[in-house]
Design brief:
homodimer; alpha+beta; 24% helix; Pnp Oxidase, Chain A; seven-stranded antiparallel β-sheet
Chain lengths: 143, 143
């Protein structure tokens, strides 16, 4: 694993939104916007709403992860000045967490970063958190 | 195919950046930020720089598409007011274009939307354009 350099770490920590790609067992990708926390090693992103029509395990991103844990996340800002463009791509694998100490800790970190999660009582919803274990982090800058 | 509704179409047309996920034949996803144009039916996103160390066909996103044309694109804006969150997810398949009338037309559309491409002489670079043929477009709004 490439150890994340400080600027990578800072970039990941300072952002509030990322886009996460999973793929099902047939290789069909799905990309969605996510909120996340980063503890310096792993990323955590929650399911924050019970799906209306299906159980939470039938949510496409969850089904994908259960079929195929490979995952890719991009964090970037868009600027019209293209020489300012910067992004971080994280490759890794995902695990579903539904209970336990690490699960509880991730909920606390999420509520510290996003007051919105406090307002919606994330910690009482009993919904899974996706843990992303990076095995490669790429930092890209236009110049 | 779900016919894109006007608000979906408007949302896609009015944005300047998207995030595109491909996956290799082993189902390993890759997500990258992209610039794109939408002609009301298909999306086009160019390779706008010759990779430094490899040929353009060895670029990971190109290799993925050649191995597995399935693709997913998300277009979204992040707001701290989560009730404003909106996104469009496009599922489809990708084709590589390297010449021909449609290829030339996509370069013209890209230069019309992004003056940055005019400044970098995109039309003379002879680099491929990825054509994305949607088979499903999902529009999601928090409320």
């Amino acid at each position: 694993m490439d150890i994340p350099m400080d600027r990578q770490k800072q970039f990941i920590l300072s952002h509030r939104v990322a886009r996460m790609a999973t793929a099902d067992k047939l290789g069909r990708p799905l990309v969605v916007p996510i909120c996340y926390v980063f503890d310096g090693k792993n990323l955590y992103t929650p399911i924050d709403k019970k799906p209306k029509r299906v159980s939470v395990r039938e949510l496409k991103r969850i089904r994908n992860i259960l079929e195929n844990p490979k995952i890719s996340i991009v964090i970037d800002d868009y600027y019209e000045e293209w020489n300012k463009l910067t992004y971080v791509i994280i490759h890794g694998r995902a695990e579903l967490m539904e209970s336990g100490e690490e699960y509880q800790r991730s909920l606390r970190l999420l509520c510290e970063k996003y007051t919105q999660y406090v307002d919606m009582n994330l910690s009482t919803l009993n919904l899974p958190v996706i843990k992303v274990i990076p095995d490669r982090i790429l930092f890209w800058r236009a110049i």
